Inverse folding.
């Protein structure tokens, strides 16, 4: 990746570590299950948690690199000088949705912390698993904001040039 390419290094590392942990945990469980006819009790609970972390960290990386699935037909039809308006609308809709996830995720995390709820599998406090949802949604909002500003800046710079 070149120095000018968009980066989301903390989220990339988090996603890579989560994927590595899921692979190691799952492989270890398979080996133990086939050699001893028993299995690790923690694998499902940790694997689900790590897959959620992997998904949201990956979404933040995708947001920063402008590689989220989207329909570009409208974008391509619009004149370059109007594209920043579309980018702003896309950003606002995404931030609204993620903001709701942050709000309700934080509320749920606080309630689980207040109630001292424990996970059914291992008996760990559930807020430890839930706190990652609002935090990683905030990371996605931050990366979407960076992406939107970069895309608008590129359009404004290209807007002064001849439009084909």
């Amino acid at each position: 990746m070149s120095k000018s390419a968009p980066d989301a290094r903390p989220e990339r590392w988090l996603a890579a570590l989560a994927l590595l942990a899921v692979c190691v945990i799952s492989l270890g469980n398979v080996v133990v299950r086939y050699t001893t006819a028993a299995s690790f009790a923690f694998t499902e609970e940790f694997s689900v948690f790590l897959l959620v972390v992997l998904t949201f960290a990956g979404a933040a990386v995708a947001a920063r690199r402008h590689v989220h699935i989207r329909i570009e037909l409208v974008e391509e039809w619009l004149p370059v000088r109007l594209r920043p308006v579309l980018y702003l609308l896309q950003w606002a809709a995404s931030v609204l949705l993620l903001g709701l996830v942050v709000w309700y995720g934080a509320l749920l995390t606080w309630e689980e912390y207040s109630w001292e709820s424990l996970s059914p599998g291992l008996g760990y406090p559930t807020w430890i698993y839930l706190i990652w949802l609002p935090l990683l949604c905030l990371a996605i909002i931050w990366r979407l904001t960076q992406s939107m500003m970069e895309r608008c800046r590129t359009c404004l710079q290209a807007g002064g040039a001849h439009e084909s």
Observations:
- The chain has a mean pLDDT of 90.
- Residues 41 and 140 are 32 Å apart (CA to CA).
- Helices lie at 9-36, 43-64, 73-77, 83-115, 127-130, 132-159.
